[in-house]
Design brief:
alpha+beta; Aminopeptidase; 8 strands; disordered N terminus
């Protein structure tokens, strides 16, 4: 489900870090030639090692058009951003943001990110999440960032902790730890 108009600012999220450029994938999804390039990049991302820690709803099917369908589904349910290396424009992964209003006049922003395997262990995820937190603070509206991490994926949990997140024990399940940060 797409966000309501009062949450539309999330879809315009765009920021740079020292090594990264994060920008909406919208123009790539709506342009046939650019979508073909994006589809090819997504295929390099959705490897068994990357998919291992993603929730079932983010797993592509085995159908021939699976990646194209995956892109359409992600585009319809949330805001998706390409993570690229600033200097080379190399595709490094995706950032997914889903915003919801909260009863406390605060925006809840669920975050998800995944990187191509070649980007693992290089501080890219930490730089990404730290950049997102900085962007969130610049929005000057009460916001709660939530990130779910499969318990077996301790590296992702460590990234969130480095960025200031704490475990939200109420929202944590047997399989998934939820981390939160109030901005």
């Amino acid at each position: 489900m797409k966000m309501t108009d009062d949450l539309a600012f999330v879809s315009t999220c765009r920021f740079d870090t020292k090594r990264l450029r994060i920008e909406p994938w919208g123009s790539m999804v709506s342009d046939t030639d650019k979508k073909a390039r994006l589809t090819s990049e997504i295929k390099t991302l959705l490897t068994p090692s990357v998919l291992k820690f993603l929730p079932e709803q983010l797993q592509p099917t085995n159908e021939p058009q699976a990646v194209e369908d995956w892109i359409i589904t992600r585009d319809n349910e949330s805001d998706v951003f390409c993570i690229r290396e600033r200097d080379t424009n190399t595709f490094l992964g995706l950032l997914i943001l889903a915003a919801f209003p909260d009863t406390a006049d605060r925006i809840i922003l669920r975050i998800g990110y995944f990187l191509v395997e070649d980007a693992w262990g290089k501080g890219i995820a930490t730089e990404l999440v730290t950049g997102l937190v900085k962007w969130g603070k610049e929005q000057r509206c009460p916001m709660e960032l939530l990130g779910g991490v499969e318990k077996a994926n301790s590296a992702s949990g460590a990234v969130l902790v480095k960025a200031g997140f704490e475990i939200a024990t109420v929202q944590t399940t047997d399989d998934t730890e939820t981390y939160r940060l109030l901005l």
